[in-house]
Amino acid sequence: MFLNVLALLLTVYTLVADRRSPPSADTPAELARELADAVCRQWAEEAEFRDLNDPYPLPVTWELADHRLFPDWTVVDRLGRGEVGRAPGSRSGAQTWAKSPAELVIPGRPLVESYRKIPTGRLVLLGEPGSGKTTLMLGLVLDLIADRRDNDPVPVVVTASGWHPAEQSFADWMRERLYRDYPFLSIRTVGGGSRFDVLLDAGLLLPIVDGLDELGDGLRSSTIKLLNQYLKRPRRRVVVTCRTEEYRKASRPGKREITLTGSVGLTIVPLAADTVTDYLESSAEGPQRAAMWLQVRDALRAEAGSTAAVALRTPLMVGMARQIYNPGDGDTGAQLPAPSELLDSTAFPDVASLRQHLFDQYVRAAYRPRPRSGRWLRVGPDDAERWLIQLARYQETTMAGSPDIEWWRFDQAVPHPVRAFFGAFIGGINVGLIGDSQQPVQGIAWSTRAFTRRFLYVVGSSLVVGLLFPIAPYGALAMGMAVGVVSGIVVGTRGEPIELPRAASPLEVLGRDRRLFWIFGPGLGFLAAVLFGASGALLVDNRAGIILVGLVAAFYAAAAGGMGKAAWGWFVLARWWWFLRRRAPLRAVRFLRDAHRRGVLRQVGAVWQFRHIDLQRRLALRDPGPQTSVPAVGAHQVDAT
User: Fold this and answer.
1) Which residue in 12, 186, 212, 454 is a FRET match for 486, CA 20 to 30 A apart?
2) Nearest to 28 by CA among 290, 284, 205
3) Computed over its alpha carbons, how large is the radius of gyration of the chain?
């Protein structure tokens, strides 16, 4: 019996307790190349999902921002010259830098050409809501990587939402975000730090902070201050995107003035009427549909200040108008509304009402009938709209307005007493009692020291109990060893990143976490059944009792092991909770992936987001309507995860 149990222990150990990998000896240049490849693949795929090149990228132009919000050009030039020969990417050299900020405005050329002319490599990109800041940022990332050399920093996108400047420095927050999106950066090196630290110290990271305006009003000014602390070290660059008015307020809090050290500001120019209508006509299915935009073209030209002209001056609204009034990928003869309804001043008396109309109809247009294939979920506009409204409300209320849709935090929608009950029952202390969500894991590492401590503590305690109470000493020792082994494995295992040099995606993170749940939980449950059954045989002479002890131990160990280490079990609980309350389909991940394919959601590393934060806020304000059409499990869904 002892040899059988020992063999079982060794088998489970080799399956679920992967040893920590040896420290990495990668050089900064090698790590930068791996990261650049991962970033390029990530954003090239996302650009395809967002249809940025269909039929062609909207030509967005920019001008110099209000000079009062930024340092004088002489300061920028001097700071840049002081780092010549030291800053990564200095191959451009002072001879190619702009001699004045006016040279940064290059009509018809990509943003990367303007950026390379900035001596410090520090840029603030401003614009109105939906003006194309994120799209320009994405193009800048791809262009920088396409022309990258070994000494150039790697551009990495970090969304500003979720950063608490009072609690974290910018470097610590960036580390946390990049660990999530590029887990291989968290692997430790021979120097004791992580791969992220190696790249940061070598000046080979170019953080692109997207959406500074998404932080609270009182946080933006302190955020700029923390960015300035980060930029005190030489060879550090940064790109920041923000709405114009929000950045102005952050730079002028009260009577004070705050500027981002060594930065240059550019502001996106609203789209011209001809640019808008040319794009919309080009994306029509043919001459007949394109001709329907002529009335809109004439109206926009005639009155630049009209409701339609003002509403359609941003790429976001133009993209939504295209989705609503032009046929999309896979549309099967849907009846499309006439573009001329955009000019109805009675239905849309102001810009706000027209924007709301475009937001509302955009979602329904995204769920027009599609061909029956494995690419699309067969879900109707009513159900999709209702579920997206519930999701937006969850983000705005429970998640405090965060744009990041994290599947592992869906359990926050479950009332705390319910989570506390499950947590107390199966030992999920973080989720059940403390209230934090279980973080997803990608791999398991083994700590012999932690296992030994717990094992010896439990065995010692069982020996004391056996001496103090009249029970079989061998039985007490056997039961203590069983408890010690099982609890020792739980304590001795911890999450660890794995060596996969690519960006994480929500589906990839979920898949690994789910696999670990089903390996670790049942494996530990089987081990507990054998150990507790064997030790129970020494305490009682009752076959039914022995089997019952083994089954109870197996269930408890499997639940504690699976839900205590992986987030997937808690996600399943949350998924059923949402489904039974008619707030989401049971197969929520399939629905989210399909929404990403349709363009309603976008993917940023390991999380999804609504296409634009204003779309999320608009949906959150809407009434989800009657909740009577939730399908049965799996009904009308042909896609597979």
Assistant:
1) 186
2) 205
3) 29
